[in-house]
Amino acid sequence: MKKSYSFILSLAVLMGISGMGSVSAQEGIDEQKLIEVGKKLFFDVNLSVNKKQSCASCHDPAAGFTGPDPEINTAGAVEPGAIGERFGNRKPPSVTYTGESPNLSNDYYNEALGIETWAGGMFWDGRATGETLGDPLAEQAMGPFLNPLEMAMPDAQLVVQRVAKSEYAEEFEAVWGPRSLDWKKDPEGSYERIVRTIAAYERSPEVNPYTSKFDLFYDNARDAKKDIKLITTKGFGNSNRPKGVPLGQHWTDYRGLGLSDNELKGLAVFNDSQRMGADCASCHTFTEGSAGYPLFTDFGFYNLGIPKNPDNPFYDMPEKWNPDGEDWIDYGLGGYLKSSGWDAAVYEPEMGKHKTPSLRNIDQRPSPDFVKAFGHNGFFKSLDGMEGIVHFYAWRATMDDGGMGDGGMGGGMGPGGGMGDGGMTPNLSLFPPPEVDENRIAMKPFNFMMVGDYLVAFLQTLTDGYEPSE
Ligand code: HEC
Ligand code: HEC
C-alpha cells in the first residue's frame, strides 16, 4: 500500500468523523455471545435517527441480505434512508460471505490478468479500506449509522448512547467488560467495539452457513476426490464423456454428486474460458475461503460496462449530496481514489470499476416472483431472460467481439432485431451504452441462447438453506 494513501480523508469520506480510539483485538472474548449481541445490533431500528431503520432494513436475510422491497428493486434499487425522502446512490450488496475481503490495496496479484491490481475493501468502490481498524468489515459498519442518506445519526456518541440504553446493553458489557459502552468518556472506543461486534455477526455461521446445493455437491466432489476446477465444455452436447475428452473435463464426470445435468452444464459453462464457456470463474473464483468452500469472488475491481440506472433516485437529491445532479457518474473505485487524493496516474485506470461481489445467495428471495436487482446500481431485474444480467454478459462480450455469436440478440428475439438473418444481426440497442466507457474489461463471448439457462440453473444452486429431497 502506497504511503500517499490518505488515511484521515478516507475516514472522513466513510463516516464524517475522525479520531477513533484504539480498541485492542478481541482477546478473551466469548465469540458466541459476541455474535448474539452483534445480531441484536444489526436488527436494532433504534440505532437510526428516527428509530425506524436498522441494518436489516436494507440487508434483509430473506432477500439474501439485500433490498427487501420488490417495488424499489424494480425501479431505482436504492433503499430510502431513515429519513424517507433521502436516498444514497447504489444498490445494497449482500453482507453474506463478504467478511473475508482483505484490506483495499493495489498490490494483489490478479491471476486472470497476470498483473498486480487493486482488490479488497468493502462497498462497491472499496472505500471501507480496512486501513483504520485493520478490518474492512468492521470499518464498513462505521458508515451507515452516520450517513445522512442512511441511518442519519448525528454522531457516533449518540449511537453509543442508544446502545447503552438498549435492552441488550448488559449483554454487550458482559462480553466486552464494564464501561465498554461509555458514551461520555470513551465514545470512540465504544463505537469501535460496536462495529466490531456487528462484524462478528456478519462473519458468523448464521450469516455464512455454506448450506447451498452447491456446497453439498462440493463436499461430495471432495469426498470423491474430484476437482471441479477441471470441468470444461469439451464434448458439451454428449450425454456421456466422448473418447478423447480427459477424465474430469466432461460435465458427466460429476454426475451423482448432487447437481442435476443442467446445473452441471451450467457449472461447465461458468468455469470454462474456452469453447462454449463464459469464463465467469475467472473473477467469481472457486478460490476457497477459510471455511474451505469457494467464495465466488476475487475481491477485484472491473468495469463491465453496466449502463446507468435512469431510475436511480440519487439523480434528484439536493446539491448538498449530489452536486452533479442528473449528470452524476458513478466512477466506482476510481472515483473513490480520486476523492482521497491519489494521482491521476493511479485513479484514471480505475474509473468505472466496481468490486466483484460473491455470487452466493444471488437468487435467494422470499418468493419466486419477488423482484431482485443486480449490479451496483440495480440496473438488471433478473438473472434470466433477454434483459437479465446473464444475457448482458453475453451481449456485451459479443458487441466488443464484432457482434457475432451471442445467439440471442437479433433474429426477432430482441426488440428491433431483424427477421430473416438467422439471428446473427445483433440488436445493438438492447442495452443502453455503458455508464463509463473507459477501462472496460474484455469478456468471453458465449452463446446465450444455447447456454444461458444452464448458467442461471447453476447460479440458483448457490442459495443457502438447501434441503435435499430424499
Ligand atoms: C439505507 C440502506 C442501508 C442501510 C440502513 C445499511 N446499508 Fe449496508 N449498504 C447499503 C448500500 C447501498 C451499500 C453499498 C454502498 C456503496 O457501495 O457505496 C451497502 C454496503 C454494505 C456492505 C458492504 C458489502 C460489500 O461486499 O462490500 C456491508 C458489509 C453493509 N452494507 C453492512 C451494513 C451494516 C452493518 C449496516 C448497519 C450498521 C448497514 N449496512 C446499513 C445500504 C444500507
Ligand atoms: C471480469 C470479471 C468478471 C467476470 C468474467 C464475470 N463477472 Fe460477474 N461481476 C463482476 C463484477 C465486477 C460485478 C459487479 C459489477 C457492477 O455492478 O458494476 C459482477 C456482478 C455480477 C452479478 C450481480 C451481482 C449482484 O450482487 O448484483 C452477477 C449475477 C454476476 N456478476 C454473474 C456473472 C456471470 C454469470 C458471469 C459469467 C457469464 C460473470 N459474472 C462473469 C465481475 C465479473
Automatic annotation (TrEMBL):
A Pfam family annotated for this UniProt entry: CCP_MauG
State whether keyword Heme applies. yes
Q: Specify the Cytochrome c domain's residue ranges.
A: 33-162
The entry's keywords: Heme, Iron, Metal-binding, Oxidoreductase, Peroxidase, Signal
| Signal sequence annotation | 1-25
* SUPFAM superfamilies assigned to the protein according to its UniProt record, in alphabetical order: Cytochrome c
User: Which molecular-function annotations from GO does this UniProt entry contain?
Assistant: cytochrome-c peroxidase activity; electron transfer activity; heme binding; metal ion binding
**Per the record, what is one GO cellular component?**
cell envelope
Q: Which Gene3D superfamilies does the UniProt record give? A: Cytochrome c-like domain
Compartment(s): Cell envelope
Tell me the PANTHER family matching this sequence: BLL6722 PROTEIN, CYTOCHROME C PEROXIDASE-RELATED
UniProt-recorded name of the protein: Cytochrome c peroxidase
